[in-house]
């Protein structure tokens, strides 16, 4: 499986004024890769993810999955938002099973998949709980399990841990790396947190603004089985500082353009 963006641009028109959010984006993501996208607000991070998800269509260029154009949402892409968007009237296990019901899987296969992903995400003991009975971290685990249960080619994560406290956020980071290692699922994640991007990603893509475009594509040369202590290592700190400088540089350019400074 290869995800490719070729010359992708996206315009938004509001009250007869057209703004280009993304322009000339070329990106290749191979099977099993973990790519994190960072950038200042307004750089088009969520627009990029929505184009891959098929929630938006490009104004120019194309998004290809295994050579086929992405023309709308599909089961080959699982999407998790910051809010989780669970069904409040469904228990944990019935939330996880929802996509499998839409795919028409038989009861035995549905049950087996739900069981595996409940265990993988540490939710087996709360399978009969409703979302309102769960913590924020547990609700995000359910959203991730639901997205993965359909075994999509690509898992798309849009700021999935942005609303969590620091400890829960780090727990979720460890979880998503473990799931990635266990399943081999290709992951494309948008985050505003550079430390999170460096910890999770095999690559970090930095977006510039006005319009959004790729400013850098950085390989993360850290041990693949890394745990939280790696965040204190000199190599990690240097890489985080490098990417933060890139984001800061692009943001300063954005502010200068707004002020009319050449």
Structure, explained:
The protein has 262 residues and is α/β, with parallel strands linked by helices. It has a domain at 1-71 and 156-161 and 186-262: P-loop containing nucleotide triphosphate hydrolases (Rossmann fold), CATH 3.40.50.300. It has helices spanning 45-53, 92-103, 107-120, 136-149, 166-183, 194-200, 234-259; strands at residues 2-14, 17-30, 34-39, 60-65, 68-69, 77-80, 154-158, 186-190, 203-208, 213-219. The strands form 2 sheets. It has a 6-stranded mixed beta sheet, sandwiched between helices. Strands 2-1-4-5 form a 4-stranded antiparallel beta sheet. The longest helix is centred in the last third of the chain and has 26 residues, at 234-259.
Give the key terms.
alpha/beta, four-stranded antiparallel sheet, Rossmann fold, globular, 10 strands, six-stranded mixed sheet, 262 residues, 26% strand
For the termini, the CA-CA separation is 43 Å
Sheet of most strands: 6 strands, mixed
The protein's oligomeric status is single chain
Provide the structure class: alpha/beta
Kindly provide the radius of gyration, computed on alpha-carbon positions and rounded to a whole number of angstroms: 19 Å
Q: Tell how many strands the DSSP assignment holds.
A: 10
- The strand line-up of the biggest sheet is 6-7-8-3-9-10
Strand and helix order? EEEHEEEHHHEHEHEEH
Strand content: 25-35%
Mean pLDDT: 91
Parts with pLDDT < 50 across at least 5 consecutive residues: none
CATH topology of one domain: Rossmann fold
Assigned CATH architecture of one domain: 3-Layer(aba) Sandwich
CATH superfamily annotation of one domain: P-loop containing nucleotide triphosphate hydrolases
What is the 3D shape?
Answer: globular
């Amino acid at each position: 499986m290869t995800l490719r963006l070729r010359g992708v641009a996206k315009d938004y028109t509001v009250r007869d004024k057209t703004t280009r959010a993304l322009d000339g984006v070329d990106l290749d993501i191979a099977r099993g890769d973990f790519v994190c996208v960072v950038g200042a607000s307004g750089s088009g991070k969520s627009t990029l993810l929505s184009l891959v998800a098929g929630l938006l269509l490009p104004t120019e260029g194309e998004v290809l999955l295994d050579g086929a154009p992405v023309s709308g949402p599909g089961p080959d892409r699982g999407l998790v938002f910051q809010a989780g968007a669970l069904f409040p009237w469904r228990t944990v296990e019935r939330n996880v099973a929802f996509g499998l019901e839409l795919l028409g899987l038989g009861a035995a296969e549905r049950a087996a998949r739900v069981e595996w992903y409940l265990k993988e995400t540490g939710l087996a003991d709360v399978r009969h709980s409703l979302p309102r009975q769960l913590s924020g971290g547990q609700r995000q685990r359910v959203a991730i399990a639901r997205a993965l249960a359909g075994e999509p080619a690509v898992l798309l994560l849009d700021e999935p841990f942005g609303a969590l406290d620091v400890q829960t956020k780090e727990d979720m980071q460890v979880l998503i790396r473990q799931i990635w290692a266990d399943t081999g699922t290709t992951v494309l994640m948008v985050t505003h947190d550079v430390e999170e991007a460096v910890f999770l990603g095999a690559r970090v893509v930095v977006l510039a603004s006005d319009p959004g475009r790729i400013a850098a594509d950085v390989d993360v040369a850290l041990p693949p089985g890394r745990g939280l202590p790696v965040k204190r290592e000199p190599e990690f700190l240097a890489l985080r500082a490098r990417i933060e400088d890139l984001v800061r540089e692009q943001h300063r350019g954005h502010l200068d353009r707004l002020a009319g400074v050449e």
